[in-house]
Specification:
CATH architecture of the largest domain: Roll
Number of strands: 14
Order of helices and strands: EEEEEEEHEHEEHEHEEE
Radius of gyration: 21 Å
Distance between the termini: 39 Å
Structural class: alpha+beta
Length: 212
Amino acid sequence: MTAQVGVETGTLSNITSTRVDVAIGGHTAGTEDIVVTLTNGESDTLIDGIGFTDTRILFVTSTIHTGDLGGIAGADAICAARAAAGGLTGTFQAWIADGTTSPSTRTGQLTTVEFISTTGQTIAPNWVGLVDGSIDVGIDKDESGATVALGVRAWTNVDALGGGSLGSDHCSGWTSTSGSGRTGIVGNSTSFWTNNLSTFACSGTAHLYCIE
C-alpha cells in the first residue's frame, strides 16, 4: 500500500483495516491530490484532497525597551536578535509605525498566510484577519514560547484597522526618550492589542511585537 500526496510518497504507519497514518514533509500553500494504491494494485484519487497553509510567526519580545529604539531599523534589529535567540528561522520585523512607514506598507499581506504564535496558536487566519479590528488570540508568547505577563505594553503606533500609522506619537521616529508613543496591550485580542487609545512616555519601557 502507498499513499502519494502531490508528488511525494508518504511514510505509512499504524495501518488498520479502516485507517492509516501518513507522514509527509513540508508543502507550499495550496491543495494537493491524494492517491492511495493498495497492494492488489487498485487505487483511488481524491482531487484536492488536502490543503496546506503558509504560516508566519508573530511574537512579543521577552525584552523591554525605551522609545529610543534606533528608529524602525533598530526595532527590526531587536526583533531579528530576539528571533535568533529563540531559535526561529526566517526574517522578522517590528510591528511598529512612524509617520511614514507602517506594517501596511511593508508587511506581506497574502491572504493565504496564517499568522501563528511561537507555540502554534492561530493569531489570525490571514492579513485581513490581522487588521480587521481584533485577532483570534492575544499575542503573549515570546520568541521562546514563554508567556509574557498579560496587560503590559508593546510599542506600536499601529492602527488595528488596516495596520497603518496612528499619527505622530512615535517617540520622534522611535529615536528619542522624550515625548510620547502609542502602545498596544500584550495578550489583548480586541483592537487594544495594537492600539490601546492612550499614549505612553517614551522614557518608559515596553515590549515589541515581531512579525515574520
